[in-house]
Design a protein that fits this description.
- The chain has 425 residues and is of the alpha/beta class.
- The protein has 15 helices and 14 strands.
- β9 (209-216), α8 and β10 (259-261) form a beta-alpha-beta unit.
- α7 (192-204) packs parallel to α8 and α8 packs across α9.
- The longest helix has 22 residues, at 233-254.
- The chain is globular.
- It starts with a strand and ends in a 6-residue tail after the last helix.
- It binds iron/sulfur cluster.
- Iron/sulfur cluster binds at residues 83, 85-87, 90, 92, 106, 108, 121.
Length: 425
């Protein structure tokens, strides 16, 4: 059963009399469990929909509509699938006490992997999940492999029952499922020869594995430092060498680069970022792989849409991770817009200075950085620093921040999106 949370005006759903609180029970006699069932089972022009109205009345509708016309429903979010692992580097262990409950959920959900590109380990799949992945052909999936050696992988995941990843991926690949994979590199555990072997195994798997990224493990002040540490510059350099060696093989044999280092890996290795061409389709940009090159491309391709900013002063709030790389993005942006940009790297006051990603910036730290900045015409904030409800990780709302700062704020994913909305008043 899935509950309806909203009905769009003048939609098919409204015409049928569905409303907030209506329970969607079945389509063509098949019980509905979540948004996946809903999307896949209603992907026909004609279907039978069985619902229970908020008053308890059950109705079956015979629906026929052009495929292009949406039904017009919003659904309650799916209950997140909990993780079966206990990785030493888990972000949840690195959280301080007192944050919103939802932040402490270890999610590992193949549905969100398919829908949003979240990485999943596939260690918590039940037989029914396997059937659904195959039946609905949930492809591509984003999979945290970490190591193909089952012993090393089980150690990293702290899960002695984790299935062997290569046979598991093989059983899906035989049904046409493809994968983007990642290795979170924990020094002394899955770097060096283990990483080399992992990249080789995944590459030799064949084209169903579209690519593999290597991301250095990131910790907070609260992480289990007695069990896991961040890689050194030389360890990151060694990983970059392995990635680039594998990419060179892939390029000559398959015409794609296939293996990628996260931007963070290059930063920690103190090496220049590779050019945009190596990221193929930027498939893992949300994972911080090629993010700077992707931003540069977005700015170049949106130049015409972001006019009207000549002479304006724009502050760019970011986590300290990107501070060193951001000039590579802001320089072309200044050229295109005629505005001047000031980088405002914000130290994470909640998790500690070692947490450098923009997505975890607390609202209070951003507020402090913008305090008294009446000299700015606009402050751009990373879009990933707030959730869908507009809340920062510390629970501050974007609205509250807006009211508390003397400068207009806009959230942005790629600068062009916020600047194309027109110059600040
Ligand atoms: S897979 Fe590991 S890092 Fe991810 S949520 Fe589970 S325990 Fe945490």
């Amino acid at each position: 059963m899935i509950k309806v949370t909203a009905v769009q005006p003048e939609s098919i759903a409204q015409e049928l009399g569905l409303r907030e609180g209506t329970e969607l029970l079945a389509v063509n006699g098949r019980e509905l469990e979540d948004f996946l069932d809903w999307e896949f089972l209603t992907a026909e022009e004609r279907f039978l929909l069985h619902v229970r109205q908020p008053g308890g009345e059950e109705i079956e509708f015979d629906i026929e509509r052009p495929l292009a016309e949406p039904i017009g429903l919003s659904l309650e979010p799916a209950r997140i699938r909990r993780c079966a692992n206990r990785c030493d580097f888990c972000f949840v262990d690195g959280l301080p006490d007192g944050l919103r409950d939802v932040l402490y959920i270890r999610d590992d959900d193949y549905r969100l992997s398919f829908r949003y590109g979240n990485f999943a380990t596939l260690t918590n799949l039940k037989p029914k999940d396997v059937e659904r992945i195959i039946e609905y052909r949930l492809s591509p999936l984003y999979v945290s492999v970490h190591a193909t050696d089952p012993t090393v992988r089980r150690y990293l995941l702290r899960n002695p029952t984790a299935p062997e990843i290569i046979p598991q991926l093989r059983s899906f690949a035989e049904h046409g499922i493809e994968f983007h994979t990642q290795v979170v590199m924990s020094p002394g555990v899955n770097d060096g020869e283990v990483l080399q072997q992992t990249l080789r195994d995944l590459y030799d798997f064949g084209p169903a594995i579209v690519g593999c990224s290597v991301v250095p493990v990131g910790l907070t002040e609260f992480s289990k430092h007695h069990l896991v540490r961040e890689p050194t510059r030389d360890e990151c350099r060694a990983a970059v060498s392995l990635v680039e060696a594998r990419a060179a093989i892939a390029l000559s044999e398959r015409g794609t680069h296939w293996a990628f280092g996260a931007d963070e890996l290059y930063v920690r290795a103190d090496l220049p970022l590779p050019p945009a061409e190596i990221y193929d389709g930027f498939d893992q940009v949300e994972n911080g792989v090629g993010a700077v090159r992707w931003l540069q491309q977005r700015i170049a391709s949106s130049a015409e849409a972001i006019s009207g900013w000549e002479g304006r002063r724009i502050g760019v709030v970011t986590g300290t991770a990107m501070a060193g790389l951001m000039p590579m993005v802001l320089e072309p942006l200044a050229r295109v817009t005629g505005a001047s940009f000031e980088l405002l790297p914000v130290v994470n006051s909640l998790f500690g200075a070692s947490v450098t990603t923009a997505g975890l910036l607390p609202g209070a730290a951003v507020q402090a950085a913008l305090q008294g900045r009446r000299d700015l015409d606009l402050a751009l904030l990373p879009g990933e620093s707030v959730n869908d409800d507009g809340l920062f990780v510390d629970g501050m709302s974007a609205e509250l921040l807006d009211a508390a700062t003397p400068v207009e704020i806009r959230f942005s994913k790629d600068f062009a999106d916020a600047l194309a909305m027109g110059a600040a008043a």
